[in-house]
Write a structure and sequence with these properties.
By secondary structure, the chain is mostly helical. It has helices at residues 10-26, 33-40, 44-50, 54-78, 83-98, 107-115, 120-143, 148-168, 172-188. It has a domain at 59-188: Tetracycline Repressor, domain 2 (Orthogonal Bundle). Helix content is 76%, strand content 0%.
Length: 189
Amino acid sequence: MTAPAATTDPAEQQLLDAAERLFYANGIQAVGMDALRAESGVSYKRMYQLHAGKEDIVLAFLRRRDERWRGRLGEHVEAVEGPRERVLAVFDWLHLWFSEPGFRGCAWINAFGELGGTSPAVTAEVRRHKGAFERYLRRLAAEAGCSRATASALFLLAEGAMATAAIQGSPRPAREAGRAAAALLDAEA
C-alpha cells in the first residue's frame, strides 16, 4: 500500500502532531486555530505559511494519518503467510487498532461526518483513503481466490466494524467481522 511521503519540516510536524491529537480527541469543528497554535507552539504566521487555513490543515492531517494507517496495516498483513490468512489478518489488525488507548473511531469517517456536507475537499480526501483501502482489500481477496462480490462484502465488514467499534467503545466488532469474513472465505473455497 503506497501513500504520500511525510513532511520533514519541523514546524509542519509539530502542527500536524497537534492537529492529530486535538482533532482526533475532540473533533475537527471543536478545535480552533488558537488551540492548534497553543498545542503546537507554531506561530500563526508560520501556520498560515504552511497552510492557507484550517481546511488545509485537516487535509494534511488526514493525508499523513493515511500514510501511517495504511503502512501499519500493510506491515501487519504482509507478515502473515498465505492469502486467506492475509485477508483475515486485516480483521486481526483492526482489533489491535480498536484496542489502542484513546481509540475514537475512524478519523476519515469522523471527518466525513463532521465536514462531508460542507467541504468537497475533505469529502474527496475521505473517498481517496477509503478507495485505497478498498483496492487493497480487493487485491488481498483476489489473491485468496475470492469473487469481486465477496471482496466488496469484506470491505463492508471492515468498514462496519470501524463504525461499530467506535460507537460501542469496544474492539469486539473486529472479531465478529473477522468471523463473518472467515465464513465468506470458506463459502468461496
